[in-house]
């Protein structure tokens, strides 16, 4: 059966064409076993909504057979074909493909080994009959027929705001805004609700020196990329202004200065009651779908230490830190050793504060310039753009690697980074800093995907620790006194200010606050892969827990992550919501179980 795509004498394209023809033939005949046998024993299929109405990965021919047995009749796929010339490297053929299902059109990526398909990615890109109004389908903008009572564009927009939304999105940062833009283009009545006065205030209100540590090519929002002269690393206020502009230009239905007080689900009616305080009024919304887009950095972890009530100086979580100007000459203790801790320590040092960092656990550090070159350069850089790797293509390449094996691709990159910057790491170690490369040496991206913390992209502050300009203390905090911080080993750190750079809680915590604890417990932990590494307990789940897909609570969703994830996954979440809005059948394959609370 496999000879057509095993024969090394045939071209890569012929091998891909033969595999796709065999795959489609088996699917058309509903021969699940034949289709599954086209996958290598160590093969993977990652599906983003196209077949499963879920975000899921199956492993091996048996996993493929299980997916197809559950989804094939409903999906009714066809039209598999390549979209550009396949390539071959190291015995692996790679190809970009497209296909159709009963309800939509999709694109994907295939890696083919002699034993069969190694990885297959399938993604739903649009729903048939509900395509976005782009290109030739763009709106006219005005009616070229005069009629009494004709409404202007602005009047039609104002009328829309009076409707009850089908979707309420709680949280108006980049995640909520990106999803709001997608829903707007798909014609799904929705509203994005945020407590801040203006879109972008989530960034404006952070500490003064904050900049994105990801490069501009990684951070575009849907539909409207940053201009060509946008800085590589965006300052927080510039991002804030961009988000505000984007919200207006993309006509995202956005309620600012609004606070969600509670949300209750009526299972019989299939609707939520969402209570909102807005402009001094209490408003009840009755959406069908509720999305928490409160962000990975939305609910501060403010630690409780004995003596906080007797400390005479200032205490603040890193999210509350106003900037360094008021602390010139002051003694500052920063509890934490990840991104925010380093950023704040660096800015305080620049303003002549006496700064001590308290490192409680090991941290992974990578130099920004090295990460941009080695870790991101082939996908998100000017070099990548010149090679024809668009942002969407880069997103798809990244998505095409199943999480089960992603670390195998990351480890060599971080080994190269360690070699390139060996002197830097030696100086950090000499200064007493505890550094790690992740539990398996796979570095920053896997740490982010597994736990969302535990790293710093160095833009200069690590050098301050390495040479002692920012002092370093190791250990857990025991208690505070009137004028300092005491560690468990008895070390006393005098302080006028204590900054808790202690991270953020799970988005699940917002469900507990606004819905109830039983609902939060039923959904379970949000984020992580089940890798059984620190802060990411098993069992293996293979995808981000509860993100961008159905959860154990009907009609409740989570959306967020960094700008890259907010951009990429907002499409798949928006399509799931659109399908439900239009009443399309959306049978979910393998709804994720809940293994952990909180």
UniProtKB/TrEMBL annotation:
One Pfam family from the record: Pyr_redox_3
Domain of life from the UniProt record: Bacteria
Keyword flag Amino-acid biosynthesis: no
Record carries keyword Protease: no
SUPFAM superfamilies registered for this protein in UniProt: FAD/NAD(P)-binding domain, NTF2-like
Alphabetical UniProt keywords: Oxidoreductase
GO MF, one annotated term: flavin adenine dinucleotide binding
Name recorded for this polypeptide: FAD-dependent oxidoreductase
